[in-house]
């Protein structure tokens, strides 16, 4: 949600299985349905929208993982730069279920499910 399509292309070029909501015509789905869809497909949600962290937190489930951008500079090159840094730090946490907040200088990880 709100993530530059350039980020999707960057991840695909590196062999990641990435889907943008626009690819599937799902960009207008309510947040709850996006979370459910991501959980069903064991995907990670990349977003600027804090609502997804709350939905993941309240789900009491390990999936889907949510990576939330909290960037002052939201241009695509900065999204990619901070995502690559976050994947180095939080890659395994995202694979097992986590909420990861990525800001201009830090990466914070909260494992799911939150009890």
Total number of helical segments?
4
- Radius of gyration, CA atoms, in whole angstroms: 13 Å
Topology order in helix (H) and strand (E) letters: HHEHEHEE
**Helix amount:** 40-55%
Number of strands: 4
What does this structure look like?
- The protein has 115 residues and is an alpha/beta fold.
- It has one domain.
- It has four helices and four strands; from the N terminus they run H-H-E-H-E-H-E-E.
- It has helices at residues 5-13, 31-40, 51-59, 76-96, and strands spanning 44-47, 65-70, 98-103, 107-111.
- A four-stranded mixed beta sheet has the order 1-2-3-4, with helices on both faces.
- Helix 4 links the parallel strand 2 and strand 3.
- Helix 1 packs across helix 4 (76-96).
- It is globular and about 35 Å long.
- The termini are far apart.
- The mean pLDDT is 92.
Concise account of the structure shown:
The chain is built from 4 helices and 4 strands. The protein is an alpha/beta fold.
Pick out its properties.
115 residues; alpha/beta; 4-stranded mixed beta sheet; 4 helices; 4 strands; globular
Write the topology of this structure:
Layout: H1 5-13, H2 31-40, E1 44-47, H3 51-59, E2 65-70, H4 76-96, E3 98-103, E4 107-111
Parallel strand pairs: 1-2, 2-3
Antiparallel strand pairs: 3-4
Helix pairs in contact: 1-4
